[in-house]
């Protein structure tokens, strides 16, 4: 295939990037690729301990997609072997390891979601147990001899734990070395990762050199904050927008982000062109547009990426109907619960129907005005609901359930 020019490629690759180390090496590799008409090997390691992908993960996946669109070879490395070690990056303590079976299962789940972002062309998925599992103890000792303890302790999380006299297992030192061997095995030209992976990626360069390979260029992407605007996007913190979320969930969650994140989300999570990005940045700076309108545009862009433009329009219309016109959704999940004529406490009702995970959480929702039955707000946690007919229960902003007594 014919590749775009060096300048065209570099302009696309630079978008939203934190660092390219070293950038001159990337330009040289691309020039060589243009001359030989051979694509570069672009490596991304998949963490099999967290198979549920969200927009935070999509930032680096989208960069990999750009390399694909430029004609280069994407190589997804499922860390089924390294997952048994557990990546200590950004951890204040040792991360629990997984079994090989768990890592393989999670790796397939990761891939199934990743292809919502990636092209099905110019892509390979490999498991690093293919080469790491074949290394002898002699091979491991040889590998370990190529990096020093003092070099390992330059890593911030190791350094912090060492100074606090917190335990660091020897096997944790092997993780970045094992990840580096992935780069050796596939002859990686470029490795992508978040800024929290910078140390591991740099180790890859060093180990490739030790094994007589041309060092990879490393490219780091920013960490996308979650919808709370404070913490890193995480499912455990419930501040995430999942790539498998429904259109209405994506739309509503996007509208909940703080105004300060609007530009970052446009930059890192959408395909809005550079000219439009400049316009958005200017509008936010001079206050010429209501941030709410920009968030609605952002929400449509994100839903359209993972579903379709039609789904984005429908999600916006439903959001307006529910939250502006105060209507109920066209489609509400239904369950059969309780006997006709019976009475049930509101806390029991919303916990037993899984609208709240516990009675204490149910109580909090009621006391904060987040629960209504048939559009009547419930403020008394002792309230009894009589089930003479079907009732529609709303919890929070987006949870609706039609309860039908039998």
Report, as a whole number of angstroms, the end-to-end distance: 64 Å
Report the mean per-residue pLDDT as an integer.
89
Tell me the strand order in the biggest sheet: 1-6-5-2-3-4
SSE ordering: HEHEHEHEHHHHHEHEHHHHHEEHHEEEEE
What name goes with the CATH superfamily of the largest domain? HUPs
Helix segment tally: 17
Q: Which descriptor suits the 3D outline? A: globular
CATH architecture of the largest domain: 3-Layer(aba) Sandwich
Strand content: 5-15%
What is the CATH level 1 assignment of the largest domain? Alpha Beta
Biggest sheet details: 6 strands, mixed
Estimated structural class: alpha/beta
Strand segment tally:
13
Report helical residue fraction: 40-55%
Poorly predicted residue ranges: 90-94
* Radius of gyration computed on alpha carbons: 25 Å
When the domains are counted, the total is 3
CATH topology-level fold name of the largest domain: Rossmann fold
Summarize the structure in words.
By secondary structure, the chain is α/β, with parallel strands linked by helices. The protein folds into three domains: 6-221, Rossmann fold (3-Layer(aba) Sandwich); 247-324, Tyrosyl-Transfer RNA Synthetase; 334-404, Structural Genomics Hypothetical 15.5 Kd Protein In mrcA-pckA Intergenic Region, Chain A, CATH 3.10.290.10. It has helices spanning 6-14, 23-36, 55-69, 100-114, 129-132, 137-144, 149-152, 156-163, 170-186, 198-210, 247-255, 262-269, 274-286, 291-306, 309-324, 346-352, 359-367; strands at 19-21, 41-46, 73-78, 123-127, 190-194, 217-221, 334-336, 343-345, 371-373, 376-377, 384-386, 391-395, 399-404. Strands 1-6-5-2-3-4 form a six-stranded mixed sheet, with helices on both faces. A five-stranded mixed sheet has the order 7-13-12-9-10, with no helix packed on it. The longest helix has 17 residues, at 170-186. The N and C termini lie far apart (64 Å).
């Amino acid at each position: 295939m014919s590749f775009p020019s060096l300048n065209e490629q570099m302009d696309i690759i630079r978008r939203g990037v934190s660092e390219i180390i070293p950038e001159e090496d990337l330009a040289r590799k691309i020039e060589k690729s243009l001359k030989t008409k051979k694509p570069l090997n672009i490596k991304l390691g998949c963490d099999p301990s967290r198979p549920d992908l969200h927009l935070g993960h999509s930032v680096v996946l989208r960069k990999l997609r750009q390399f694909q669109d430029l004609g280069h070879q994407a190589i997804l490395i499922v860390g089924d072997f390294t997952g048994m070690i557990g990546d200590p990056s950004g951890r204040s303590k040792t991360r629990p390891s997984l079994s090989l079976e768990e890592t393989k299962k999670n790796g397939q789940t990761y891939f199934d979601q990743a292809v919502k972002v990636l092209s099905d062309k110019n892509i390979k998925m490999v498991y690093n147990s293919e080469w790491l599992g074949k290394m002898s103890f002699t091979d491991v000792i040889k590998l370990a001899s190529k990096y020093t303890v003092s070099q390992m302790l330059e890593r911030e999380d190791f350094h912090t734990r060492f100074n606090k006299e917190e335990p660091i297992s020897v096997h944790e030192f092997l993780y970045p070395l094992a990840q580096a061997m992935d780069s050796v095995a596939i002859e990686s030209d470029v490795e992508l990762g978040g800024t929290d992976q910078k140390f591991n990626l740099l180790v890859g360069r060093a180990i490739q050199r030790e094994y007589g390979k041309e060092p990879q260029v490393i490219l780091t992407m920013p960490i996308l904050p979650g919808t709370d605007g404070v913490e890193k996007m995480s499912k455990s913190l419930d501040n995430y927008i999942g790539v498998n979320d429904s259109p209405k969930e994506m739309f509503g969650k996007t509208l909940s982000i703080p105004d300060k994140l609007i530009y970052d989300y446009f930059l890192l999570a959408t395909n809005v062109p550079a000219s439009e990005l400049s316009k958005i940045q200017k509008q936010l700076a001079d206050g010429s547009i209501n941030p709410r309108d920009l968030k609605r545009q952002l929400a449509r862009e994100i839903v359209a990426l993972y579903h379709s433009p039609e789904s984005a329009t429908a999600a916006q219309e439903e959001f307006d109907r529910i939250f502006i016109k105060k209507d109920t959704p066209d489609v509400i999940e239904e369950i059969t619960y309780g006997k006709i004529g019976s009475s049930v406490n509101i806390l029991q009702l919303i916990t037993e129907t899984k609208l709240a995970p516990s009675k204490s959480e149910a109580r909090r929702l009621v006391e904060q005005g987040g629960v209504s039955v048939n559009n009547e707000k419930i403020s008394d946690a002792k309230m009894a609901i009589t089930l003479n007919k079907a009732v529609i229960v709303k919890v929070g902003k987006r949870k609706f359930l039609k309860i039908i007594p039998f």
